[in-house]
Amino acid sequence: MFIALDEAARPVTLHSHEQAAGLSGHFSCPACRAPVGIRNGPVMPAHFYHLGPPCDASEPESAEHLAGKLWLMAYGRRRGFAVVLEQYYPQIR
Ligand SMILES: [Zn+2]
After folding, report:
1. Cα 31 to ligand 1 centroid, rounded to whole Å
2. Once rounded to an integer, what is the mean pLDDT over residues 20-44?
3. Ligand 1 center to 5 CA (angstroms)
4. CA of 28 to the centre of ligand 1 (A)
5. What are phi and psi of 14, to 5 degrees?
6. Ligand 1 center–CA 4 separation, angstroms
7. Cβ atoms 3, 11 nearer than 8 A
């Protein structure tokens, strides 16, 4: 997942390895509020992951899935849309 909440409950969206390398502090899952960490390795796009068991709102995501979401975000922005990644709807999870 690319979205987490910072210590002030503000959403943080990961969009690059460089950005992720500069982040510090504690982050939590927007859906379940459990602590999440940042994975910033060479294979996958930088992303958040649950430090404990993942919640119902999260799902395993391949490198292609994550890269596809970033590509769609960039494409939408180039087309002039206000793009929101991973909007969470509690009613439908
Ligand atoms: Zn969660």
Report:
1. 5
2. 95
3. 11
4. 8
5. -80, 135
6. 9
7. yes
Tokens of 35: 């602590």
Note the pLDDT of residue 54: 92
When pLDDT is averaged across residues 4-14 and rounded to a whole number, the result is 95
Strands 27-28 and 11-13 come out as unpaired
Tens-digit pLDDT profile for residues 46-78: 999 999 999 988 888 999 999 999 999 999 999
CA of 78 to the centre of ligand 1 (A): 30
Q: Which pLDDT score is estimated for 89?
A: 80
How far apart are the CA of 10 and the centre of ligand 1, in A? 15
CB within 8 A of 69, min separation 6: which ones?
2, 85, 86
Torsion angle of alpha carbons 85, 23, 44, 62, nearest 10°?
A: -40
Residues with CB under 5 A from ligand 1 (ion): 29, 31-32, 55
Task: Specify the amino acid at residue 23.
Answer: L
3-state secondary structure of 55: coil
